[in-house]
DNA sequence: TGGGTGACCATAG
DNA sequence: ACTATGGCCACCC
């Protein structure tokens, strides 16, 4: 009934894409935004992720980092190292909030989800 | 009503 | 190679 409904749809879309990220893989905000539509800037994705913790079912937000492979969103997790621990648990090496071999683990929805 | 901010990215100097 | 700036659009005060 409102514009916010469309926005909510966009938010849900973001969460859905994030849930599609395979274990041991990561992606960045820009790629998600690009996959959903170039008109959506990466900031919107980040803003959507801001509420990811209260979504049902939960969103694997730890698999989303910025384009340089830095865990920019770790401060938004319940505990400071929750994000890093979750990534390491999936076999991703993280040193000083930086994902090692980022390119190797990178997962681009607009490429992997080609249709 | 308007302006500042944000889990960002791309381009230019 | 690094730094600075603009752009993107929704949200909050």
Portion in strands: 5-15%
Largest sheet: 2 strands, parallel
Broad shape: globular
Share in helix: 40-55%
SS field, number of helical segments:
6
Distance between the termini: 31 Å
- Output the structural class: mainly alpha
What is the CATH topology classification name?
Arc Repressor Mutant, subunit A
Question: Which spans of ≥5 residues are poorly predicted at pLDDT below 50?
Answer: none
- Give the C-level CATH assignment: Mainly Alpha
Q: Write the H/E string, N to C.
A: HEHHEHEEHH
What features would you describe in this structure?
The chain has 115 residues and is mainly alpha-helical. The chain has a single domain, classed as Arc Repressor Mutant, subunit A, CATH 1.10.10. The protein is built from six helices and four strands, in the order H-E-H-H-E-H-E-E-H-H. Helix 2 (29-36) crosses helix 3 (42-49). The chain is globular and about 35 Å long. The mean pLDDT is 89. It binds a DNA duplex (13 and 13 nucleotides) through helix 1, helix 2, helix 3 and strand 2.
Characteristic key phrases:
two-stranded antiparallel ribbon; 43% helix; two-stranded parallel sheet; 4 strands; DNA-binding; 115 residues; Arc Repressor Mutant, subunit A
